[in-house]
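Box S2. Input/output pair 1.
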Amino acid sequence: LAIYQFISSFQIAYSPYLMKTYAEGDILKVNKLILVFTKVSFLLYFLVTIPLFLFCGEILRFWLGEVPDYSIYFTKLALFLVFFEILSLPLVSVVQASGKIKKYQLYLSLIIIINIPLAYGFFIISDKPELFFYSKIFISFLVFLYRVFLVSKLLYFNILDYFRDIFLDLTIFI
């Protein structure tokens, strides 16, 4: 999605600073930067996504004329799917800075590949095409949790504090 590319551009701007700070060994500052960059990434995502989510039908009708079945629903699910990827961007930068990429990529790939049998199982159980998105959203959530867990081990931060700091502030914003 273009939204992910837009937020990724922001990530390209802060990633070198985050990596440099990690390389300097300033773990406390890296922890603060992760929180700041995650919140800013979310705010950018939120500012772009909410109007698209609210006016999805009108935008698709304007763009396509006749809107195919499931298009509005799939678009909204795709917008939601990007949410976990956006929250993960600062975490990915820290993993890359740590140099512990081999194990990270192996476990990440194993989690992501679970989507194939999961989606297949959903298609066997039901003929609803949106189930693929549900399985993909679930896998994206698992990938996000894995990234949080891995970075918490690298930076020695408390996972519950991370979630409280991120989601409490973002909930207050919303």
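Box S3. Input/output pair 2.
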Amino acid sequence: VRRSGTWGPRVLDRVYGAFGRVVCSSSTSCFLLYSDQVRRWTGSSWGEPRFLGRDLGGDIAVDCTSASFCLAVGDGGRTVTWNGTRWSARGTAPLAVLGDVSMDCTSASFCMVSSNGVTSTWTGAGWRPPVTVQGFIAAVGCQSAIRCFGTTSGGLFVWDGTQWAQTSMAVGDD
């Protein structure tokens, strides 16, 4: 774990071998999510497992924009959010989250999630309809609700707030 510009002890060794996703919004606020459990890092130790609000399954994408907002999406699109105090079930994303899944949030009102060649955006109130991409977007990174980038084996795509368009930039081994 990186703290104050230096690497500290490998704290995940103390989380009893759990597999899941780790996300941090600050040096004193991290979460480890797995299936229907969550643990919180306080800056010095991991808390006891808590019920997440619903079972997300084994494939989970999670991102936090602050200590008061995180979004997690699991198998079948099951969704939970963190409000700074607790995790709550928040409906179902309109895509199947299986295997490789990527998500990036820029605020509590915008997150982009990609899985199995389909992307969808979180608006803060719910999910927008899915958008299919030509190629399998392996990773997404967003600057804002109208500017995201996604990589596929065929190149780099850019999101303009409503659709994906392929750029002329190639990605991969050339």
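Caption for Box S3: Confidence is low (pLDDT under 50) at residues 7-18. The CA atoms of residues 59 and 99 lie 6 Å apart.
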